[in-house]
């Protein structure tokens, strides 16, 4: 279940050790894949794991009450108005209650304390029958153990929902004797109510809601009716557990001198109700006892308003300026042709140049990947997941595991905002606003109307190709402001998992009040503490220092996108002034004059001027020339500050991350990131509207270089509704989801997916993993795996009841009878009317033609190659096949007999040759009729194997193949058909998936091509996802079906540069652009390690043409990798028992 | 596309060589002289606050100003002009050490901001 459902606790860790600790959480190593980094694993709800099943009874989970109780004293210095809600006292003698420890053992029972309360106070009208005489009879200390064994039984049956509480208050008599036995006097209703009501109602209460109720009650008697349900439970428990021995102690507690300094004020939800209830019961209401909250809003609670005073639509107002904000969508960068990239960059730089004269604020923040949203999507698209097998992870668990994995791997999505500060506000305007504010209205209508007209020019400039910016909404601006104030901290999650969870207007801004900031003198980090969640972040802000020349599309990554290589999220703030040609030239000329004068000085003094002066002067001249005569793009300059904020849970972690970032930038981009002092100001600079922290490091650059920063670059691939298969492995890490039916169902493309890799590149494993994941979603999956390891998938406990293995080498005669492998179309598959008739006729005759073609090819494969090469052979086969009716019911034997009946020696010879092959047991599969019900449509996963078949090496001439190897060829051909044949059985619209391994054997045969074409064509009609794995992309290219291919995976291809460039062609990535090396470097093993490589990488092209490097990672499915391991050792081990040693961590 | 910043032009080292006809033995940036000339009167003023006398040749003040100037310029580079260094030194000193009992900076609060969904 979702961990943090209350807004009070940060996701990663309990909210307990809150706020103001000098010592931070321990810094764990391995920051690369920090599990559950709170910055990503978002707090409440947001990164929550969506669960898809009826709510189960929660096994008495310990509420947050427990930890908070411990930190009562620690939090004493928090001056929060919220804390005063829980009673008036300041933190103090919290632990004064002697009974507390005993109760804390059972933290799930907040009401337990009231049980102890003595009955001195006659119960209010709700509880008339309750009399103190229960007291002596009732439980004593020993009740505790009894409670332990008696309650779970009751609890497990009770769905814990608020509504259930009421009926359970009237218990059945069977529970009564258990407790009520000892008290004969307890005939009254409350007495019977006691035992059952308490356990039942206890878990129903929300941990936080419950305690507050009793608190309110004594203080405000009128509240009483509001909480009638709690009422019976509290007092009735009393007989059960109130020990006479305890009572005095408890009574003393509220009454005594220390009673007044109860730590109610510290927000100890558990403690407060306890003593409260006690005091209520042991004496009539004594409101005087409750000391008025002593609110210490002292000098240490300053707050400073942000400079922004108003958000109106996409404009923000500060007292002096107005800024228009735009949202820049992510752009694809990786694997695009350089020309395209250059076009993009020049378009963006033109847009920047068009903003000359304005000050820009470019902000990039992140949003944790909404794993729960994805899970809801995939669940919505999964009509009938595979039924759960008891004892294994069900569909819900499967999704939960995937979400956990998503959150553990720290995926964050970038969000880029561009603010254009375009107007200075006149004194009148800001005065008007100030006056209107006092009346609850902001900026004057007239001003806003005027600005509305001005701002349209930016829509035009920014909305064009390049940035394609759109106006932000007020909510997005709120989000940006919150993220900027709480820099690098966990973002607030959705408000509620039940409703749409949206924050209302202003809520996010109100949350900024909770963020406190700490600084140290000349310190290198700023510390931010969220007072609500207790989250603590240390933030270091780095400034972009000296930059060496960059070759952006060709050699280097965009320089503000580059930081995404590192696995933790960072924030970027860039403040630049765009100078038009006039301004920038004046600026430059001034500088040039200074240089010249210095040169003159040297000359006057008769000293050799340093050579760089001349060089710089020349360069200034060149630039000046560019400015005066060039286009606006050449002349415009961007002078400004570029900052990157790095966060960490501790100072050390933060500095270590900063160090790694600096290292990465200096090594790969030759940009020296600086770590200036005055971090507090720098961190403030990230907030829109705040002043610039002038700590130097102003960068002056031509606009194209600013455009090449491209913080909005991203590497997305895949759809967002399929199974999680891994993450992108290029310049940034995004989760990759793949729904193989997405091309057909949404994009209306063919569902042919091609996998190409060298042996060992991970094709089969990926095929198996995709098959497994699809089968989990209820897709009918058929995998053809000639070599056999995928058959082990069927042994997985969650699939075992729904899967079957078909081993062709042990099958009956006629299994692969070629005629029946091609289904006859049904009339119902076509539209009604004459057009449908015609289509149907065409399809039927096509099927016949295809059958003939297949049979001819099979016959050619069966006869020795020398014979096949003779011209007469083809003619005779064609003749014979023409004689035999091309229907499903025909068999190969008909062809043989037809050949034998010819009065031609060659024909008889061919018939004999075919009969010769039929003697081999495997060849018998081709002859005869297929057995009935060979491939039932019932199994969710069918794996067809050909165990023991020896696959020939295609590089060797066919003449040299052994008889067995020669037979493998027609078997593979027909087996491919067989695998697909199964899919034509069910309904057309149901989702089907076929995975075909070793498809390279199809190359060179006419029927092979027609098979793939037909597969690609039919895939849409039949909603059939076809995965075809091959060792050589030439097979697919040679078959000329690449236009029908929607998804491509290319694995490691290091041996042959030619194959690599063909693979690139398949990916539609420019060839000879250096990407061949990328293919060779996929899944590169670390030579220094002796372990096996724990992951596989592919370059993937999705149906939308996006290409990315992808690291496949399905480790979240327990046991899947063990079952998919195709290495010899693992197969040997699997013969007995599956390897018990876990594979190395996939994400190592 | 080869892209480079214009920063190197601004990185030229501009030094004062001395009055015409006389070359100083050390060449220091103009800014350094400027800072020195600001610091001497400052120190003289501080001195005056203590003693209420003004010395004819403020030897101590000059010495202190030289030390301070050189100290400040140790941190100056083309990316970080002197005024930035001084400003940082003057503003960033607060909160004297990582305290055991922490003291906080003002929170930056955005809850007062007015929000309109639409501009007009």
TrEMBL record, chain A:
UniProt keyword Transmembrane present: no
Residue ranges of the region described as Disordered: 1-286
InterPro entries: P-loop_NTPase (IPR027417)
Alphabetized UniProt keyword annotations: ATP-binding, Nucleotide-binding
Pfam families in UniProt: AAA_10
This protein's record includes keyword Protein transport: no
Basic and acidic residues: bias regions: 132-149, 248-267
Sequence ranges of Pro residues compositional bias: 56-66, 110-131
Identification of the protein by name: ATP-binding protein
Organism: Micromonospora parastrephiae
TrEMBL record, chain B:
Listed name of the protein: Conjugal transfer protein
Recorded superkingdom: Bacteria
TM regions (residue ranges): 56-73
Keywords from the named record: Membrane, Transmembrane, Transmembrane helix
């Amino acid at each position: 279940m979702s961990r943090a459902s209350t807004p009070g606790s940060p996701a990663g860790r309990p909210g307990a050790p809150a706020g103001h600790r000098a010592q931070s959480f321990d810094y764990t190593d391995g920051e690369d894949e920090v599990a559950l980094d709170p910055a990503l694993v978002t707090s409440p709800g947001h990164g929550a794991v969506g669960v898809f099943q009826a709510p189960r009874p929660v096994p008495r989970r310990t509420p947050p009450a427990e930890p908070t109780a411990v930190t009562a004293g620690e939090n004493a210095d928090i001056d929060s108005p919220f804390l005063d809600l829980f009673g008036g006292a300041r933190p103090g003698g919290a632990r004064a209650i002697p009974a507390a420890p005993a109760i804390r053992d059972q933290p799930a029972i907040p009401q337990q304390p009231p049980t102890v309360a003595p009955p001195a106070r006659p119960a209010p009208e709700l509880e008339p029958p309750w009399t103190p005489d229960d007291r002596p009879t009732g439980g004593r200390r020993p009740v505790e153990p009894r409670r332990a064994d008696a309650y779970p039984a009751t609890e497990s049956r009770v769905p814990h929902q608020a509504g259930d509480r009421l009926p359970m208050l009237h218990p059945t008599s069977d529970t009564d004797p258990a407790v009520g036995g000892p008290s004969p006097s307890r005939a009254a209703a409350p007495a019977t109510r006691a035992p059952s009501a308490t356990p039942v109602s206890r878990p129903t209460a929300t941990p936080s809601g419950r305690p507050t109720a009793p608190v309110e009650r004594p203080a405000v008697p009128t509240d009483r009716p509001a909480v009638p349900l709690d009422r019976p439970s509290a007092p009735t428990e009393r007989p059960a557990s109130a020990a006479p021995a305890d009572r005095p102690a408890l009574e003393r507690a509220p009454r005594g001198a220390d009673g007044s300094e109860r730590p109610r004020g510290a927000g100890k939800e558990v403690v407060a109700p306890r003593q409260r209830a006690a005091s209520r019961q042991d004496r009539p209401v004594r409101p005087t006892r409750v000391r008025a909250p002593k609110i210490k809003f002292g000098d240490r609670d300053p707050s400073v308003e942000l400079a922004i005073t108003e958000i109106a639509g996409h404009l923000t107002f500060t007292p002096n300026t107005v800024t228009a904000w735009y949202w820049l969508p992510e752009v694809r960068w990786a694997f695009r042709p350089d020309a395209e990239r250059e076009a993009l960059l020049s378009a963006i730089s033109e847009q920047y140049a068009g903003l000359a004269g304005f000050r820009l604020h470019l902000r990039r923040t992140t949003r944790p990947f909404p794993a729960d949203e994805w899970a809801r999507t995939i669940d919505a698209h999964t009509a009938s997941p595979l039924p759960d097998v008891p004892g294994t992870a069900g569909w819900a668990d499967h999704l939960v595991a995937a979400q956990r994995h998503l959150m553990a791997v720290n995926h964050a999505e970038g969000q880029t905002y561009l603010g254009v500060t375009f107007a200075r506000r006149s004194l009148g305007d800001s005065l008007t606003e100030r006056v209107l504010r006092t009346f609850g209205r902001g900026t004057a209508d007239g001003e806003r109307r005027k600005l509305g007209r001005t701002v349209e020019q930016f829509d035009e400039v920014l909305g064009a190709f390049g940035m394609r910016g759109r106006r932000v909404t007020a909510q997005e601006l709120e989000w940006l402001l919150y993220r900027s104030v709480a820099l690098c901290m966990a973002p607030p999650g959705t408000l509620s998992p039940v409703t749409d969870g949206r924050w209302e207007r202003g809520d996010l801004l109100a949350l900024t009040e909770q963020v406190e900031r700490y600084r140290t003198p000349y310190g290198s980090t700023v510390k931010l503490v969220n007072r609500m969640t207790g989250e603590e972040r240390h933030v270091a802000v780095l400034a972009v220092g000296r930059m060496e020349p960059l070759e952006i599309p060709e050699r280097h990554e965009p320089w503000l996108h580059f930081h995404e290589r590192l696995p933790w999220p960072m924030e970027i703030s860039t403040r630049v002034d765009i100078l038009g040609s006039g301004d920038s030239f004046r600026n430059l000329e001034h500088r040039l004059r200074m240089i010249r004068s210095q040169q003159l000085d040297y000359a006057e003094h008769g000293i050799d001027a340093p050579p760089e002066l001349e060089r710089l002067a020349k360069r200034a001249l060149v630039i000046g020339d560019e400015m005066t005569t060039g286009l606006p793009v050449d002349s415009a300059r961007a002078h400004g500050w570029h900052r990157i904020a790095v966060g960490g849970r501790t100072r050390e972690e933060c500095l270590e991350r900063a160090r790694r970032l600096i290292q990465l930038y200096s090594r790969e981009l030759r940009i020296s990131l600086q770590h200036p002092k005055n971090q507090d100001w720098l961190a403030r600079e990230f907030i829109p509207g705040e002043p610039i922290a002038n700590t130097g490091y102003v960068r002056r650059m031509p606009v194209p270089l600013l455009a090449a920063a491209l913080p909005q670059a991203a590497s997305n691939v895949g759809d967002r509704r399929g199974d999680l298969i891994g993450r992108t492995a290029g310049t940034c890490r995004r989760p990759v989801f793949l729904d193989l039916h997405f091309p057909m169902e949404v994009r209306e493309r063919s569902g042919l997916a091609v996998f190409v890799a060298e042996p060992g590149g991970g094709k089969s494993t990926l095929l198996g993993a995709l098959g497994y994941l699809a089968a989990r979603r209820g897709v009918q999956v058929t995998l053809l795996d000639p070599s056999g390891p995928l058959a082990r998938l069927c042994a997985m406990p969650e699939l075992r009841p729904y899967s079957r293995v078909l081993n062709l080498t042990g099958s009956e005669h006629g299994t692969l009878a070629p005629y029946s492998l091609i289904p006859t179309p049904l009339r119902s598959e076509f539209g009604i009317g004459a057009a449908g008739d015609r289509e149907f006729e065409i399809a039927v005759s096509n099927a016949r033609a295809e059958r003939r073609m297949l049979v001819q090819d099979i016959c050619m494969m069966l006869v020795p190659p020398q014979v096949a090469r003779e011209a007469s052979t083809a003619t005779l086969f064609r003749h014979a096949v023409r004689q035999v009716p091309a229907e499903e019911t025909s068999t190969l034997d008909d062809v043989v007999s037809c050949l034998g009946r010819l009065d031609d020696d060659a024909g008889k010879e061919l018939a004999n040759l075919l009969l010769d092959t039929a003697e081999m047991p495997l060849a018998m599969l081709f002859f005869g009729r297929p057995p009935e019900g060979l491939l039932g449509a019932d199994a969710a996963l069918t794996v067809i194997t050909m165990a023991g078949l020896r696959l020939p090496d295609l590089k060797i001439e066919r003449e040299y193949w052994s008889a067995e190897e020669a037979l493998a060829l027609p078997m593979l051909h027909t087996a491919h058909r067989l695998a697909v044949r199964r899919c034509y059985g069910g309904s057309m619209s149901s989702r089907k998936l076929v995975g075909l391994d070793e498809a390279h054997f199809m190359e060179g045969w006419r029927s092979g091509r027609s098979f793939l074409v037909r597969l690609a064509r039919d895939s849409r009609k039949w909603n059939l996802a076809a995965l075809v794995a091959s060792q050589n992309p030439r097979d697919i290219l040679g078959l000329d079906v690449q236009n029908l291919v929607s998804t491509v995976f290319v694995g490691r291809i290091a041996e042959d540069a030619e194959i690599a460039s063909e693979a690139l062609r398949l990916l539609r990535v420019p060839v000879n652009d250096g990407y061949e090396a990328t293919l060779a470097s996929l899944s590169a093993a670390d030579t220094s390690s002796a372990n096996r490589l724990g992951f596989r990488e592919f370059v993937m092209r999705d149906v939308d043409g996006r290409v990315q490097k992808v690291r496949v990672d399905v480790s979240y499915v327990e046991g899947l990798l063990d079952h998919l391991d195709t290495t010899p050792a693992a197969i040997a081990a699997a013969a007995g028992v599956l390897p018990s040693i876990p594979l190395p961590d996939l994400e190592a | 596309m080869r892209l480079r910043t214009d920063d190197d032009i601004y990185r030229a080292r501009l030094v004062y060589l001395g009055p015409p006809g006389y070359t100083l033995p050390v060449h220091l940036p103009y800014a350094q002289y400027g800072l020195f000339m600001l610091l001497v009167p400052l120190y003289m003023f501080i001195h005056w606050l203590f003693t209420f006398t003004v010395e004819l040749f403020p030897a101590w003040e000059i010495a202190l100003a030289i030390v301070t100037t050189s100290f400040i310029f140790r941190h100056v580079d083309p990316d970080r002009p002197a005024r930035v260094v001084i400003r940082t030194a003057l503003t960033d000193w607060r909160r004297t050490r990582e305290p055991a009992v922490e003291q906080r900076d003002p929170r930056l609060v955005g809850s007062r901001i007015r929000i309109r969904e639409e501009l007009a």
